[in-house]
Amino acid sequence: DTETGTAGDESNALRTPIVAVLGHVDHGKTTLLDKIRGSTVTEGEAGAITQHIGATAVPLETISEMAGSLVNPDDFDLPGLLYIDTPGHHSFSTLRSRGGALADIAVLVIDVNDGFQPQTLEAVDILKRTQTPFIVAANKVDTVPGWNPNEGEPIQQSIEQQSDRVEGDLNDRLYKIIGQLSDEGFSADMYWRVQNFQKNIGVVPVSAMTAEGVPDLLTVLMGLSQRYMKEEMAIDVQGPGAGTVLEVKDTQGFGTTVDAVLYDGTIRADDEIIVGGLNAPITTEVRALLQPRPLAEIRTEKQFEKVDEVSAAAGVKIAAPDLDDAMAGAPIRVVRNRNKDEVVAEVEKELAEIEVRTEEQGVIVKADTLGSLEAIASTLDESEIPIVRAEVGDVAPRDIRVAETAAEDKHKAILAFSVDILDDAEKLAKQEGVRIFEHDVIYRLIEEYEEHVEAIEQSQQEQVLENITRPARFQILKDHTFRQSDPAVVGVEVRSGTVKRNTNAAKFEDGEFKRVGNLKSIQDEGEDVDELRAGERAAVSIDGPTVGRQIEEGDELWVHLPEKHAKILEQELTEDIPADEREALSMYLEKQRNRDPFWGK
Ligand code: GDP
């Protein structure tokens, strides 16, 4: 068995800073990480990269070889950088350490052609919230028209070899990004002009395709960590380990295991550990610590090799009994020589900090990790969408059971983020009218839910309109009496509004509306119709009056509006009815209010 752990010198008490890559989809996060891995692999034998579980360690020697004159290794005593392999702010917010982000530093990737996009903003918000220092990789500089590529060169060197027009073009794009950063409250500049990286954001123009600027990126990250994070990196390497669960998964031959990133101390193959679980912290004993085999030994069938111990910062797969309820994003602590109850309390306290505020009524949120749960909850809070229950885990039938009891239709909903929906839950949801929304981009998930709520509200309003008497004013036409009474059948023309059948007709006389009868049917050229719009003519039958007595040819009639309906129409639905109906309504209200100023208020 071999020992693995910090890249570089094992005796060094400064740990490797942890780096995360964030940015909008397709802006080049994965390509950039691949390039960092790829180019460092090809940089010869001296301190090649080490593949960890979920992360890649790039030692200082490799960085200085790549960066050439940009780096003097004597300036540094940090051992290198540990890159989290899964890019994106989802994994970023998943990866927490005590009270903050697990990543010590971040790279925000922005496509120079696209600038800020929705997920760029989301990433910036998360970086702000977690107060994580970051630099900007202004990616895809090679796509500026006319660009002359210089594989792997430092960016200023490459820019010098571009035409004035290309350089000008690039600068336009870079300054646009700098402006957008400023809109978000960050003062940013090209990295070579930044004096104080704590106050200003350095922008590094790069191409993940040609690796131009990648040496600069590694150098700036290294320099930034060395300058501002050295103290945080000083750890007791031999102390009991602390880490975060990245993922809970089955590993052949080991049952349920957790992939974790260790950010403090050491974990050994015989340690007792406490892991944050769905219901309570899990106390268990390590059975095996696993790391990927070095590339050279890939001929063996087994993907992983057992190691005796791992020191921060590092990624490691931990095999132990009872890990089924472990949660991604939850803390892991090594007990070793400490009071176990205190360690359990520490884990409980950390879990409690991630608690999400819930209400009596609201939607259900299911997410794959504690971090994502927290991120969704905070976004929902901003959108004023209440949560009734928030949990890590797949969507199960019991979630549907809770959702179906919601008082309002819009709360019969489950927002599922990067989790599975169990088959019987899906069936039950259909049966009970519970809607499940799935997306692995937070803002899209919430957008889809909001669209759904809007649709519900619209249809509810339509239903209200359906059941409400609509205002209308119509006139009995001259020489169009088809029948005198029982019922009276007369030709009418609608002046404004909508006349529907089965409504009461009224006549305005002596300062008040008098009901004259029920408008039973409407016939247009022999065909029964449900309604008549402004300007249309038809024959209507009215139960009650006799032509020549209660009503006359030439009379103006109204649809009789119940006071309650008039009030809803005026106060809630004015925007939803056509202008001519609005006109009929206001005339109607005016007549009523001449008599009683508070009518319909
Ligand atoms: P992610 O979604 O942010 O991880 O983006 P990817 O790394 O998958 O990149 C998205 C697309 O952009 C892919 O087709 C990449 O090949 C391309 N791409 C990424 N970086 C560069 C770059 O620097 N230059 C060019 N020309 N294309 C790039």
From TrEMBL:
InterPro entries linked: EFTU-type, P-loop_NTPase, Small_GTP-bd, T_Tr_GTP-bd_dom, TF_aIF-2_arc, TIF_IF2, TIF_IF2_dom3, TIF_IF2_dom3_sf
Pfam name, any one: IF-2
Highest taxon of the lineage: Archaea
Keyword field contains Protease: no
Coiled coil regions in record: none
The name this protein goes by in its record: Probable translation initiation factor IF-2
UniProt-annotated binding residues for GTP: 23-30, 85-89, 139-142
Organism: Halorientalis brevis
Keywords assigned: GTP-binding, Initiation factor, Nucleotide-binding, Protein biosynthesis
Domain Tr-type G residue range list: 14-229
HAMAP family: IF_2_A
UniProt xrefs under CDD domains: aeIF5B_II, IF2_aeIF5B_IV, IF2_eIF5B
GO molecular function, one term: translation initiation factor activity
UniProt family annotation: Belongs to the TRAFAC class translation factor GTPase superfamily. Classic translation factor GTPase family. IF-2 subfamily.
Its job: Function in general translation initiation by promoting the binding of the formylmethionine-tRNA to ribosomes. Seems to function along with eIF-2.
PROSITE patterns registered for this protein in UniProt: G_TR_2
Keyword GTP-binding applies: yes
